[in-house]
Write a structure and sequence with these properties.
- The chain is mainly α.
- It has ten helices and no strands.
- Helix 3 packs antiparallel against helix 4 and helix 6 packs across helix 8.
- The longest helix is centred in the last third of the chain and has 25 residues.
Length: 210
């Protein structure tokens, strides 16, 4: 049994913690700090994402929401609502779960609902709703950081160009919103923006020369 914790790095999964250690580390943190929404969210997300595979690399899909949650914790975004939302952010959209059936409180449900895409909602309206909510704003940025960091593994050059355009059109403005509305997260926003722009710039060079 590995001693999984917030300081543990498992070199067996591309330099990151394995799925099992991510889950255990987040669960241990949630229990130690009495994050009840997160404790409810973890087994629920694990159950409903079971059998789903992440695009590129063939790893279980649950790795993605766990990484988003772990990234948040690593940045000091330790509020229960943030970590629970990170874990559940794709459950409704990808698993067909109704928001009202999530095992969390109303604040988490609202944040997850903003992060859930529907056919009825345009991209403009979708991101406008996200920008209204502090938690959904921060999780959408973290979600996109994880996606752009991994997209070279499974996206074609054409798909990467499209994803970069979407990121520059819709995600970059979220940084400005976050800076203006949530000064308590100034340091975290700086690090996330630095990471995002660096990865996107590198990918743009890759697809240009590819």
């Amino acid at each position: 049994m590995k001693n999984c914790s917030m300081n543990f790095v498992d070199p067996m999964v591309n330099g990151y913690m394995s799925e099992e250690c991510l889950y255990e580390a987040i669960e241990s943190y949630a229990k130690e700090h009495n994050l009840m929404q997160t404790q409810n969210a973890l087994p629920f997300a694990k159950k409903w994402h079971d059998g789903q595979i992440r695009k590129g690399g063939g790893i279980p899909y649950i790795y993605h929401p766990l990484m988003v949650a772990y990234h948040a914790l690593s940045l000091g975004l330790t509020e229960d609502i943030i970590i629970a939302t990170a874990i559940l952010h794709d459950v409704c959209e990808d698993c067909g779960i109704a928001v009202e059936d999530l095992p969390v409180d109303e604040e988490v449900k609202v944040a997850v609902s903003f992060l859930t895409k529907t056919e009825e909602k345009s991209a403009t309206d979708y991101y406008a709703d996200i920008a209204k909510n502090k938690v959904s704003t921060m999780i959408k940025i973290l979600d996109r950081i994880n996606n752009v960091s991994d997209m070279a593994k499974g996206f074609s050059n054409r798909k990467m160009r499209s994803y970069i355009t979407d990121t520059e059109t819709h995600i970059y403005p979220l940084f400005q919103t976050a800076k203006e509305k949530y000064p308590e997260y100034t340091s975290q926003i700086f690090l996330m923006e630095y990471h995002m722009i660096g990865v996107v710039s590198s990918i743009k060079l890759l697809v240009k020369n590819g």
